[in-house]
Amino acid sequence: MWTLAEQGNRSFIDTAGLSVIENSTGTPIVVTSDRIASLTWGSGADAFCMLDPADWTLLSDVAPGQLLTVFGNNLDPQQTVLFNGSPAAILYSSQQQINVQAPVELADQTAVTITVIAGNRSFSLPLSVVQSSPAAFLSAVSFAVDNPGLSCGNVAILPAFPPLADNDDGTYNGCAHSAPAGSRVTLYFNGAGLHPSFSLPGSNSFVDIESAQVVPGFPAGFWRLKLRVSDRASGLGTVSAQIDGKSLRVAPLGLVFGN
Questions:
Q1: Is the bond preceding residue 134 a cis peptide, omega within 30 degrees?
Q2: 135-257 has which CATH code?
Q3: Which of these ranges, 14-28, 132-146, 172-186, 217-231, has the smallest mean pLDDT?
Q4: Please, which residues have CB within 8 angstroms of residue 246's CB and are 6 or more apart in sequence?
Q5: Distance, CA of 99 to CA of 115 (rounded, Å)
Q6: Domain coordinates of the chain in residue numbers?
Q7: How far apart (Å, rounded) are the C-alpha atoms in residues 157 and 151?
Q8: Averaged pLDDT score across all residues of the chain
Q9: 72-128: per-residue pLDDT in tens?
Q10: How far apart are CA 240 and CA 111, in angstroms?
Q11: CA distances to 37, 65, 69, 161 from 141, in Å
Q12: Domain covering 3-129: architecture
């Protein structure tokens, strides 16, 4: 899947994606910088699922340019993904996983049938097409339990889902690396559509929007949002972002501020 990964103190997007590796028993393990999920398939099972790689939710609609991930068991290497019969760009594929980008041409349509073909096996998923289907890329911590909250020392906020967020110095935002007052924090969003409008209703007063843009070198629909941190920011805070007036499926996001 697509994920922010850490290389030293630098965050980057790995287009090969959230890796699928094999453990000693051959069970596919899905990992980001830490393990976040384990996928197991019954013997001979013909299993597929399609989800948003940012927050791991199953799809109910799709936006132009959105990044999608298909998981399956023993997928044939001859793979095709069709959107209303037209082939889409496959960005990564393996026997367990296919990463694909929804065509930007979906902007002119109201419904789509996504068909995944792997050898002689296939499955189809009909979805409505929407202007945006927003999701924030989440930290591995957010997948640990249904609602992990955010806790640093003796201070906690619940609910709050830690996002994959870059501080100014390239470290991930979190208890070990807080965002200093007056600095910047960058969040990443999937399914934002082609011309999104970002807002922060209900967020605390520690942050404000500085800029929003497509992540350079990556597909349309994949955006980064740079936030200004208030000069008086400290402790834990929440961000309730909206795109085109739509709330994130998994929210609020939790950030750590300090010196």
A1: no
A2: 2.60.40
A3: 14-28
A4: 132, 133, 134
A5: 13
A6: 3-129, 135-257
A7: 6
A8: 79
A9: 777 888 899 999 999 998 888 888 788 899 999 999 999 999 999 988 888 888 999
A10: 28
A11: 11, 27, 20, 8
A12: Sandwich (2.60)
- For residue 39, give the amino acid letter: L
Residue with tokens 């197991």: 40
**pTM metric for this prediction:** 0.82
Q: Do domains 3-129 and 135-257 have the same CATH topology?
A: yes
Residue 67 confidence (pLDDT) above 80? yes
Instruction: Output the six-digit token pair for 68.
Output: 């999608």
Residue range 21-37, pLDDT digits in tens: 333 233 333 333 332 34
Please list, residue by residue across 124-134, b when 16 or more beta carbons sit within 10 angstroms of its beta carbon and e when fewer do: ebebebbbbbb
User: Can you give the pLDDT at residue 9?
Assistant: 26
CA dist 190 and 4 (Å) reads 12
User: What type of residue sits at position 135?
Assistant: A
